[in-house]
Amino acid sequence: MSPAAGPGTTARPAVPGRFRTRTGPRRPPVTLLLAAAVALLALLPLAYVLAAMVDVGWSGVRELVFRPRVGELLWNTGRLVGGTVALCAVLGVGAAWLVERAALPGRRVWHVLLVAPLAVPAFVNSYAWISLLPGLDTYGGALLVVTLSYFPFVYLPVVAAFRGLDPALEDTARGLGLSGWAVFRRVQLPQLRVALLGGGLLVALHVLAEFGALQMLRYPTFTTAIYDQYRATFNGPGATALAAVLLLLCLLLLLAELRLRGRRGYARTGSGVARAGRPVRLGAGGAPALLALAGLVALSLAVPLGSLALWMVRGSSTTLDRSALLETTGTTLGLAAVAAAVTTAMALPTGWLAVRARGRMATLLERSTYLGSSVPAIVIALALVTVAIEVTPWIYQTVPVLLAAYAILFLPRAIVPVRAAVEQAPPLYDDVAASLGSSALDRVRRVTLPLLAPGLGAGAALVFLAVVTELTATLLLAPTGTTTLATAFWSASSALEYGAAAPYAVVMVLLSAPATVLLSRDARRGLDAVTARRTGRGPLP
Amino acid sequence: MSSLTVTDVTKSYGATPVLTGVDLHVPEGSFTALLGPSGCGKTTLLRLVAGFDDPDRGTVEVSGRAVAGPGMSVAARRRRIGFVPQEGGLFPHLSVAGNVAFGLPRRQRRDTGRVRELLRLVGLDAALAERSPHQLSGGQQQRVALARALAPAPSLVLLDEPFSSLDASLREETRQAVADALAAAGATAVLVTHDQAEALSMADQVAVLRGGRLVQLADPRTLYRSPHDLDVATFVGESVVLDADVRAGRAHSALGVLDLERACPDGPARVLLRPEQLRLGRAGGSGPLARVRAVDFFGHDARVRLELPSGVAFSARLEGWDLPAAGDDVTVGVLGAALPFPSAEGAPAAHVSA
Fold this sequence. Notes:
The structure holds two protein chains of two kinds. By secondary structure, chain A is mostly helical. Chain A contains 22 helices and no strands. Chain A has one domain: MetI-like (MetI-like fold, Orthogonal Bundle), CATH 1.10.3720.10. Chain B is of the alpha+beta class. At the A-B interface, α17 and α18 of A face β1, β2, β4, β5 and β6 of B.
């Protein structure tokens, strides 16, 4: 009945001298400390703006914020954000419906063409338009350019949501006698709500943070005003006060989204619907629909690319400096590679904890990085410049500060895939490898790293591509003499040397193209990584 | 090959005790099953033996040498204990051959002959060696996991519910292959399972865990015929539990006067019969009368649900031919003796199990 007694109570190690003694918890909190450091860095700009405002005091804030200039900027920014979101929603949903649900020829091609505008940075798009039509420096011009740059942010999640809809619901609704329009309005649209909200928020945050495109169109918003203020008075409280208002707007948007989303819960999208719905025949509406899609693609893709081609041809006869282009490309790629490596390395502790040590602490640290990255680049740059000058003057105007800005901006792009990879590598594999005699280092080399490699690679690639086209932070933080594609493009186009600017833009577009193809292929997963950057939350569960 | 001795092992996670004073001895070359409902601590015990976790108290010895004890613990990788996790746990980034060879010394990893030999040992075709784990069926994955665990010639193999994720048809075949491979390798093995049929049919001895304690350690027949208490009895198999009055070494129950398996003091008791001990006769014969409520027909045999006029319900297990129909009245006879549990120590949760 009872088990045989053990052969004795004297405990000898199996291999003399080769046992570890138990002291404290098995996993030291090194990972936690690293993740906390990363979160603190991500929150640094927010903290800086907050501290600066506290420093100025209430009367100072009143003086700096409650003035006509800020009201003007609020009006400008507000109507641009509102107009862009509305237009993007109409264009995004309309295009998504046509591509996903209507019987149109070449739906796959249309899909890629509608995602492709993301390969053209907004400031390049802006340059392409204003260099052709100098009269676009108005509200209408800004609305046009920004909408054409950002409507894919609505289109992509809505397409994914359409794919996730159960066609049986539409069939049922039709069976109940609803017309095509009624099916869309009463059955599909409510289910697209979350995707539409998410996309709209993404557009709004991007417009709030947009600097290059609007500066080039000479349309004053908070970002351009902060920049001008910074140029004029360096780091006066004026710029910081504007940054504080801009941050407040971002936070309000995030909060609104959280409340709207929280009440209804998440829509399940893209969980794989076995049966594809039967496309709707458009009949007489087919030709106008095709024409509308073609028009959208022409405006968002053909115009910028055509304009670039035009300036390439015009410029090549006069100013193409091959060696400068090569050198700048080299600098940019090098910087992007280092930033990708550093940011991915910084994402690892956070992503690891989010999976292996689920809990409030891990969630808090992860959310901190998302929140930090939803701060507009101009504010991040301003904060880092000031902090560097005041606290650590020896690193002011050095590459590490620039890398820190990139990390704050793009951490979520690395965290999302890294986290997914850690989920693919449960601790079980570690245990099994240990039971097979593999040492800790050996396990990292033969099990953990190979399992994490795809996620680390994906994260690094996303950061790399984002850095290649980053303008705002680079403009403010790049050490003197360091020129990237974006800043070289910027200085040429600011001097109205459109021909000289074109080659830099072309290289940026070519480098961004692969990421765009990936996005079009896997709308939901690809977008998770990008949306996380601005919306301050993790991927949909 | 080694024996395993676990002495007074206790483990808590936070304030929740998971294992309390567990003693277990697994003789060299034997196959032991750890049987218990989910949450009874059996997987935790396995993890403590493997070295993935350390006990709060108590010692774990392999072949008489402590691997975990007060203030010391040998790292998992130095214990030479093979581990076959639930659902195989094959490394997804490695081929079948890469998985099997994982624990071999570096020089032997490229030796395809060794991998082929191990695959043959677990009854798999050597042609599978270059496949990816996701291209294998669940049963094949389990066999590869066993081959991987056996490759470094471990002193002991631990299997954590290796068959629970398999289809019924695949389960039987995989069990057989695993049992054969373990026997061929001469390995000492410990299997964690919540499936009593699996434990009884595969193991040399079965350890029943309940609420973090070892309730009974016995060979399968002893466990089935002489369970420690009524809870263990109903857990390891279908049971007929009756209230009875013991007088002069015989139990007076609703199914008549029954012989007893072992001595029992006079007085109230509960007695255990197995459904296959019951024989049904046509109404009019001798013995107590019962009505057939339902018949669960399995082909080779059947469970006949019966009810006595007093309302007491129980089941009989009969071979699949010549079955009564629902609504029939039958007489009930008992083969062999009943096992008595005096009421004073009767398990609180004892009830008639279907």
